[in-house]
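Dear colleague,

Thank you for sharing your sequence with our group. We've completed the structure prediction you requested, and as agreed, I am returning the results in plain text so they can be pasted directly into your records. Please verify that the sequence below matches your submission; if there's any discrepancy, let me know and we will rerun it promptly.
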Amino acid sequence: MSWNGWAFIYLPGKAVAVPAGSLELVEQGVESTTSIFGYGRRYLERPDAVPVDPLSLPLGCRPGDELTYTPALPPLFGAVRDAAPDFWGRRVLEARLKVPPDSLPESVYLLQAGPHRFGALDFRSDLASPEAPGLLPPLTELEYLLEAADRIQAGAPIPAQLEQIFLAGSMGGARPKALVIHDGEQYLAKFPAIKDGFNVPAVERACLELARKAGLDVPPTDIKTLADGRQVMLIERFDRRAAGDAFHRRHCVSALTLLGKHEAESLGAPYEDIAARIGELGVDAGVKADRRELYGRIAFNILVSNDDDHLRNHAFVWDGGGKGWRLSPMYDVVPRPQLAHERYLHLSVGPRGRLATLDNLLEAHGSFGLLRKDAAAIIDHIARVTREWRNLFEDLGVSAVDCDKVASAFRRPGDIGLDAVESALRRHPAPAE
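Please find the predicted structure tokens below.
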């Protein structure tokens, strides 16, 4: 059978969504097999129209054209997949509906994700359907949200007094989280998981602040300690901006969507392909900066052993003024302790594939529009900052015990190709000030 509905979008600077086109999901039980989309004529006539999906659904489509997308995995347009709830969001939805995990058709997950989903898309059963209501809880509700998240992880029912998690907990990713209002903006509250081996919220927050110190683009973060001593990391959403009493949504897609891939194709996908797509679909004035930023993030991931750098952990935001895509701020960066000397990222770094070394990254400099000396300077700067990771972590309140637990994640630059970087700098020394 099929579900037929409509994809709405909140255009840049607008508080009310407009219908972008019709969406059909062909489903067999809980499995979706095909997606069919057709842009509406009025939408394509809008001067501020935004492509729903930059690859699969370009604005060059004629009104009413229907594009059928039938890959092996998954059967959704990439941008639709990005706007659907992921692992954690599905568990929250299933807890609300009191059903077993993964027991619902994709159309139900898509419709029930609510108004606070990632990006600017929304999905409704018909054109007259109103926007789903719902105000996010304030920061003062963190204790209750964490209690509800604990119960969802344990498979326990959610009592009425904790049901605000159902509105605030629809974001993607695997870890427990909820949305809150903090300082007038929307923040993602990232909770500890039941089986964590260290204080992940505190360590992730410190790692992001280390990236900021290295000059990388990181959203505002904060850490809150609750009455039971557990900590919650807060990170500001980059796909929402306060506008008076409302929030403007920003259309976002993952790098998975920007490259036209599905999850099964993420492992080993080259960072160079992301850099190339920035050149093709990015804002002209921002291509150089975004490629440079991406290059710095790879260096950082290598140095802190963040191997969860898959294609859904890189995102792009639509720039209505530049009519193109910009690299989003950095997110989901956690050092992974390990003993192996030879380490790998999820994505391919350079000519030696996923090998997480600085010289492997250096050899890829041309794909990011960088001269060798400039690439070496970026790597060298980030290596100098990450060497001092423990000082920053302790300053931010990460315990000595947790610092010891994650210490093996942080690489000694001299062990992973810093000599090639220093050689490039010696050949092209920086000018004297």
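Summary note from our side: The first strand starts at residue 2 and ends at 9.

Kind regards,
the structure core
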